[in-house]
Amino acid sequence: MSVVTEVAAAADAVLFPGFARRRIEVGAGVSIPCVSGGDGPPLLLLHGHPQTHAIWHKVAARLARHFTVVASDLRGYGDASRPATTADHVRYSKREMAADQVALMRALGHDRFSVLAHDRGARVAHRLAADHPQAVSRMVLLDIAPTLAMYEQTTETFARAYWHWFFLIQRAPLPERLIEADPTAYLRDVMGSRHAGLAAFDPTAFAEYARCLSQPGAAHSLCEDYRAAATIDLEHDRADRAAGRRLAMPLQVLWGQSGIVQRCFRPLDEWRRVADDVRGGTLPCGHYIPEEAPAELLAAALPFLLAD
């Protein structure tokens, strides 16, 4: 076992006691690590930026009372593979990242599952549900409006608050070089500037975020996620809109009442433009819902996820 693997396994043992740690080959030289535990219908948990599956440590045990929980890293994040990039950013498109997760769940024996996803993971979940509707039974998305809507409705307020969206898409290697100069400072600046500051983050989890972002190539793959979101992902979203493709599965959208999504968008209205069965509302927190308001998240999401 490598030193990196030992450190990751030790962190998972603290954050997800009783969960099994696996690494699954999902094709084309890409492998995805995950932790899994519990019993019942399968539930996939997807994290956001600039984090890893560790964001779910405050809710995983409770969810595992009802579900077989799988919390994974996204391609390019955490300890997941970082495929070589191309000029069109396709290898970090949400389509490719979603396909990773479908392959992961199938490898674990789950052809159909529910999804609970935050931030970038929620954007991957949106594409997963659009491309693989037969795989998704229910979906909970945290603190996002659809990517296309957010870009098309960008205001000064949004751009100032989500400055990293526009920084990370700059041509390589400018943003990579600045992040790599001090990855932990980048985390503190991005995460600490939100509603709850850094107080919401468990030290073990934060250390995992810092360890993973400090790995060679991590800053580049993170930037490629955002470059794809500003290019090829928008093409895919516009193609769905032009074709009239909509999400049919039940969808719950939850967002922080003290966050930028609440201030700049109407999330329910935007999701109803792309999905047929949408409900949800605010939670008393900012952006990092699973870590800021785990009890409130569970109170809102569990009844929805457990519904027939």
Can you put this structure into words, describing what you see?
With 308 residues, this protein is an alpha/beta fold. It has one domain: Rossmann fold. 46% of the residues lie in helices and 17% in strands. It contains 16 helices and eight strands. It has an eight-stranded mixed beta sheet with strand order 1-2-4-3-5-6-7-8, sandwiched between helices. Strand 3, helix 2 and strand 4 form a beta-alpha-beta unit. Helix 3 packs across helix 4. It is globular, with a radius of gyration of 18 Å.
How would you summarize the topology of this molecule?
Layout: H1 3-15, E1 20-27, E2 30-38, E3 42-46, H2 60-63, E4 68-72, H3 94-107, E5 113-118, H4 120-131, E6 136-142, H5 147-152, H6 156-161, H7 163-168, H8 174-181, H9 183-192, H10 203-213, H11 218-229, H12 232-243, E7 251-256, H13 260-264, H14 267-272, E8 278-283, H15 289-292, H16 294-306
Parallel strand pairs: 3-4, 3-5, 5-6, 6-7, 7-8
Antiparallel strand pairs: 1-2, 2-4
Helix pairs in contact: 3-4
Protein name: Haloacetate dehalogenase
GO molecular function: haloacetate dehalogenase activity
Keywords: Hydrolase
